[in-house]
Specification:
The chain is of the alpha/beta class. About 40% of the residues lie in helices and about 15% in strands. The structure holds D-glutamic acid.
């Protein structure tokens, strides 16, 4: 039986935090991951640019001669906000799952009803995010911090800059703690930020909830593709990058297969 993979993309390594949850939830599926590192970061670009990149990558994943994808996971909050509605219009029969900042789970966890949100400038400016925030506005106060440069510093593995930006942005958000008026929950609204979860936790204190979306997205993907799920062998993984693929090697928490640039995509397939 031909086994079509699930496509997953992000501007870079961030989406690997989602891929990890997907592989745990769907161990028999094959995945093709594209890191658009040659055009990253997305978070400080305009909406049209991010939408066009999302369309180009989706086209590529659907036009793979031998094995087009059967479903798409946009493992990027910024690209989901800019493009999921367009991609669903373009491909009405393709199951498409997106990622959005985990405001609802944060509301369920918070006692003080003051919730911090770290995300890219583009995500926070988007209509999609603002509609979500408004829909929950009576239940909690959200303090949103655009994190210019943070995804890029994580992508480049620049520890000094990453630490400095985490300190700057968490202190700009306000006082964390469990007392009334304090922020007791922090949403990681960009898929790059789970990679610095431990560092953020050190800065804001061990009692503060940190919330991201990997597991809910993986469960939602399983629900959406239930009828097409394979059984049997463990699935395979192919990783591609439009830029330097080296970072993918370091960040994927599973055995990797040969990598290649997107333009020579077939050479990167795992056997
Ligand atoms: N990882 C992405 C997100 O979830 C975008 C990071 C970037 O390229 O700015 O928003």
């Amino acid at each position: 039986m031909i086994k079509h993979p699930i496509g997953v993309f992000d501007s870079g390594v961030g989406g690997l935090s989602i891929l990890k949850a997907l592989r745990a939830e769907l161990p028999h599926e094959d995945f093709v991951y594209v890191a658009d590192s040659g055009f990253a970061p997305y978070g400080e670009r305009d909406e049209c640019f991010v939408a066009e990149r999302s369309r180009a990558i989706t086209r590529h994943l659907l036009e793979r001669e031998h094995l087009p994808i059967k479903a798409l996971v946009i493992a990027c909050n910024t690209a989901t906000a800019a493009a999921i509605h367009l991609l669903r219009q373009d491909y009405p029969d393709l199951p498409i799952i997106g990622v959005e900042p985990a405001l609802k789970p944060a509301v369920a966890l918070s006692q003080t009803r003051r919730i911090g949100v770290l995300a890219t400038r583009r995500t926070l400016a988007s209509q999609k995010f603002n509609a979500l925030k408004a829909s929950l506005g009576t239940q909690a106060e959200f303090i949103c911090q655009p994190c210019d440069g943070l995804a890029d510093a994580i992508e480049r593995d620049d520890t000094t800059k990453t630490r400095a930006l985490c300190a700057e942005y968490t202190s700009a958000i306000g006082q964390f703690g469990l007392q009334t008026g304090h922020i007791d929950t922090l949403v990681l609204g960009c898929t790059h930020y789970p990679f610095v979860r431990h560092h953020l936790q050190e800065l804001i204190g061990p009692e503060i909830h940190l919330v991201d979306n990997g597991e809910p997205v993986a469960r939602q993907t399983r629900r959406m593709i239930a009828a097409m799920s394979p059984q049997g062998e463990t699935g395979q993984l192919s990783l591609f990058s439009t830029g330097n693929p080296a970072g993918l090697w370091l960040n994927v928490a599973v055995p990797t297969h040969p990598l290649s640039q997107l333009k020579s995509a077939h050479h990167g397939e795992s056997a």
